[in-house]
Amino acid sequence: MEFPAMINHFGEVSKDFPLTWVNKNVRTLEKKLDVVKNLLTQSVDDVRFNEAINSIYFMIDKLPLMIMRLDAGAPIFRARPNYGKLFTEQQEISYNIAHADRISAGRFNRPLEPLFYGSLRVENPKIDPVLHCCLEACKELNDEINPPVVQDLTIGCWVNQDVLPVVNLCFDDKHLAGNEHLRKAADSFIAEADKFFSPVASAFLLKFMRFFSELASSVKENENCYYILNAYIYAIRYYYANMLNTAIPGIVYPSAMTNTHGLNIVLVPQAVDYFLELKQVFMQRFFLVKGTKNYISDPCSNLARVTAHKFKFTNVRPYVQAGKVVDYSLYHN
């Protein structure tokens, strides 16, 4: 199954796209969205989860999704905490297929399901992509009760090799205020919706988009939010496979761990293999400032280039913790 050149503008929508139906049946769509919203407060079982999937599938069959395309050469940053281990292979810092049995439910993935989460560079002075991907990969850095004193992370710079189409799920006003490129694209999408749909239908489309955008950027990580976002990505993937015989590469969404200033991306494993190449890797260290909840952070290794999916760090700096010297060279050849 090939990755698609996906619909990006209303002008590309086929003639049989159900615009008239949407204008006349907004109430039906509202009821479908209510089924999904109810999952926030209900106990989740297979029946309710499948109802949410079917409701989302029904809505995306009637409503256009906003697609953005990442240009070839666009970097994607992904971090993984070291926890005392020195990584040497690409697969160790990519999506997890070696130990899928350890994968718990995430923002978009179901238990045991490997997906690739990364961070995009945005032209916003309030967020650095290195800090961004570290905060996403290591939630302990935001732990108010028991934060780590020292935390090392390995950061990979993955480079997109082709035009990569992804569904945009970022309609957060705070993020868009600092991301002019995406804001203009979102404004254009909404303006085109206003041309094609009735005011009531266009308002529902924006409501639909913002509901999932807010869920994706929520810092209140609970199973119910995850179930809804799992249902969302499952419905999209199934819809494109079933109706269009194409594969959906992934989704971009606002970053919860950076108060929505950053922009995240989640990709299916096949998209990582098809579109991305790991180019460079380095290690970043976070030190907790004594008596505070603040960190200082600096690189703690030289930049390593990736060859044949492997890399080797040099000059990894040792550090002192609890009166003992921690030196990776003592444990790794």
Provide an overview of this structure.
The protein has 333 residues and is α+β, with helices and mostly antiparallel strands. It has 2 domains: 142 residues, no CATH class; 151 residues, no CATH class. The protein is 34% helix and 20% strand. The chain has 9 helices and 12 strands. The strands form 2 sheets. Strands 1, 2, 3, 4, 5, 6, 7, 8, 9 and 10 form a 10-stranded mixed sheet that branches. The radius of gyration is 21 Å and the shape is elongated. The two termini are 42 Å apart. The N terminus is likely disordered.
Instruction: Give the count of helical stretches.
Output: 9
What is the percent of helical residues?
A: 25-40%
How many strand elements?
12
- Spatial shape: elongated
Number of domains: 2
Largest sheet: 10 strands, mixed
Q: State the distance separating the first and last CA atoms.
A: 42 Å
Can you give the mean pLDDT? 89
Percent strand equals 15-25%
Low-pLDDT segments, ≥5 res:
1-15
Radius of gyration: 21 Å
> Helix-strand pattern, N to C?
HHHEEEHEEHHHHEEHEEEEE
Structural class determined from secondary elements: alpha+beta
